Every structure is written in structure tokens, then in C-alpha cells.
């Protein structure tokens, strides 16, 4: 029997009359690593923004563990167990690596305050740093981290909030080959430990290496779903990518070939 974690039905997001999400249906099952691909402007980030309460849908439903997320506020959605990272990591450069995660940990506490006096580090902070391989840099200033390390720090800042669904927006953009491999392995570990992961990604080499199931978006809807091999063979997927020029990040026609 399937164990549905996220169920999106008839979702619409409209910006000044433009339907960025246009009647989208999507289901994600517990413990999956799902990759979400599609040409620029397909609506991938807008979908994640809608799931996490950053944009308000014009219509439709987003159910997480059976509970409706539409019209809930961002922090309520975090507390319900949905975490996300952004294309550009948002870390506090003037704080240490450990303090960044500690601050993030306080967001999950209902009456927590960033300014309150606390003794010691919040539970789970060191575990989160170990999970992403930054424990040895715990006392370093976040401002000195490389781009890849910042991405991992942002993942730790989400992991410490104990998400059951983690949404990653282009986690390997700008990373070296070695950092990409480490990030793929990190995603696999996170999933193996019980957090379902939805990854938006343009880098098809990365998708080929780490994806089992891939969902393709186009013009605000799901075009198709399947294994990497299946979506690569799909004529409509090839047409969607062929209809657009190759972009700077390599998301053009040859990316799905
Ligand atoms: N706040 C906004 N106001 C107006 N239009 C927007 C807004 N956010 C996104 N859009 C538009 O909605 C469409 C979908 O954008 P979105 O960023 O979700 O696509 P994407 O698939 O994530 O693209 P990319 O791969 O380039 O990141 C685009 O045409 C974009 O210009």
C-alpha cells in the first residue's frame, strides 16, 4: 500500500494574471527521493514556494500527512515538518557555523525567541552538523565557508528542525564535482534516515546519478513522471527541452538526452 506524504491537487498560483502553476497535481510518497526537473520558468520554485507558504495559491489543495497547508503561515508549515533550502543559501555570516544551526533550532520551538538567554546548545545541533559533515567547522565563522559548505550549513539549519519532508532548490548549483558527489550522498543519507526529499535540479548528470523517480514540470503542470531512463526517452519531454535554447546552467535540449 502506498504511504502518501504530500498530495497536491488542482494547484494554481497566479502572478498578475500569469498562471505560474496551472492546475498541478502531484503526490510524493514517504521515504522517496523525488527529483523535479523542467525548463526555466516551468514553475518548480513557485511550487516549492506554495508548499512552504511563501506564495498563496489562487486555488487547489496541498495536503501534508493529510493536513491542509494552504492558508497556513510559513512558520506553521515548518512546525508541521516541512523544511526547505533556497537557491542562494541564507546563512548568518557573522555567526559561527554552530550558532547558525542553533538559531535555526530555536525556530521550531513554539514560544522560542532568538533573543532569549539560553544555556548550552539546543538539542540536535551537533547531530545536524555531523550529518552534513561540518562538525569540525562548528566554531568557524560562517562567513569563511565555501559556497558548497554554505549549502550544507543551510541543510543542517533545516535538518535541526526535524523535517519529515525536505525541499531542496538546486542544491548543487555552483558546486565542484566533489561537492556534488558529497551532496548526493548526503541526500541519500537523509532519506535513509526517514526524511522524504524533493529536489529541484537542472544538473542532469546529478539527476542521473542520484534520482530514482523524476517528475517533469512544464508551464505550471506535471508533464510526466518516471525513472530517469523513462523521462529521457519521453518524446514530449524532449520536445519541451528542445523548444528552448540551452541556458547558462546547461538546462537545454541536450540536458535530457
Ligand atoms: N513573484 C513573481 N512575480 C511574477 N512572476 C513570477 C514570480 N515568481 C515567479 N514568476 C514567474 O513564474 C514562472 C515560474 O517561475 P519559477 O521560478 O517557479 O520557475 P522555475 O521552474 O523554478 O524556473 P528556474 O528553473 O529558472 O528556476 C516564471 O515565468 C517566472 O517569471
Automatic annotation (TrEMBL):
**Start and end residues of each ABC transporter domain:** 6-244
**Keyword terms:** ATP-binding, Nucleotide-binding, Transport
Which SUPFAM superfamilies does its entry note? P-loop containing nucleoside triphosphate hydrolases (SSF52540)
Which interval of the chain is the signal sequence? none
Q: InterPro entries attached here?
A: AAA+_ATPase (IPR003593), ABC_AA/LPS_Transport (IPR051120), ABC_transporter-like_ATP-bd (IPR003439), ABC_transptr_urea_ATP-bd_UrtD (IPR017781), BCA_ABC_TP_C (IPR032823), P-loop_NTPase (IPR027417)
Extract the coiled-coil ranges from the record: none
Q: Name one GO cellular component term.
A: plasma membrane
**SMART domains attached here?**
AAA
The UniProt entry, under Pfam families, shows: ABC_tran, BCA_ABC_TP_C
Q: Name one GO molecular function term.
A: ATP hydrolysis activity
Protein name (record):
Urea ABC transporter, ATP-binding protein UrtD
Amino acid at each position: 500500500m502506498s504511504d502518501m506524504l504530500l498530495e497536491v491537487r488542482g494547484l494554481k498560483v497566479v502572478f498578475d494574471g500569469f498562471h505560474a502553476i496551472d492546475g498541478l497535481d502531484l503526490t510524493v510518497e514517504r521515504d522517496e527521493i523525488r527529483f523535479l526537473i523542467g525548463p526555466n520558468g516551468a514553475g518548480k520554485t513557485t511550487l516549492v514556494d506554495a508548499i512552504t507558504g511563501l506564495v498563496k495559491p489562487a486555488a487547489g489543495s496541498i495536503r501534508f500527512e493529510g493536513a491542509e497547508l494552504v492558508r497556513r503561515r510559513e512558520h506553521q508549515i515548518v512546525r508541521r515538518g516541512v523544511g526547505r533550502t533556497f537557491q542562494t543559501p541564507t546563512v548568518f555570516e557573522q555567526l559561527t557555523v554552530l550558532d547558525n544551526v542553533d538559531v535555526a533550532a530555536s525556530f521550531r520551538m513554539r514560544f522560542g525567541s532568538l533573543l532569549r538567554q539560553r544555556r548550552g546548545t539546543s538539542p540536535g545541533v551537533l547531530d545536524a552538523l555531523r550529518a552534513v559533515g561540518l562538525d569540525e567547522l562548528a566554531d568557524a565563522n560562517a562567513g569563511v565557508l565555501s559556497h558548497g559548505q554554505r549549502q550544507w550549513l543551510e541543510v543542517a539549519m533545516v535538518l535541526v528542525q526535524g523535517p519529515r519532508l525536505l525541499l531542496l532548490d538546486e542544491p548543487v548549483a555552483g558546486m565542484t564535482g566533489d561537492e556534488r558527489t558529497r551532496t548526493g550522498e548526503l541526500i541519500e543519507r537523509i532519506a535513509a534516515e526517514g526524511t522524504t526529499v524533493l529536489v529541484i535540479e537542472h544538473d542532469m548528470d546529478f539527476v542521473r546519478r542520484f534520482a530514482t523517480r523524476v517528475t517533469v514540470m512544464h508551464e505550471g503542470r506535471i508533464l510526466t513522471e518516471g525513472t530517469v531512463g523513462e523521462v529521457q526517452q519521453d518524446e514530449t519531454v524532449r520536445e519541451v527541452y528542445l523548444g528552448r535554447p540551452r541556458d547558462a546552467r546547461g538546462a537545454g535540449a541536450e540536458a535530457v538526452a
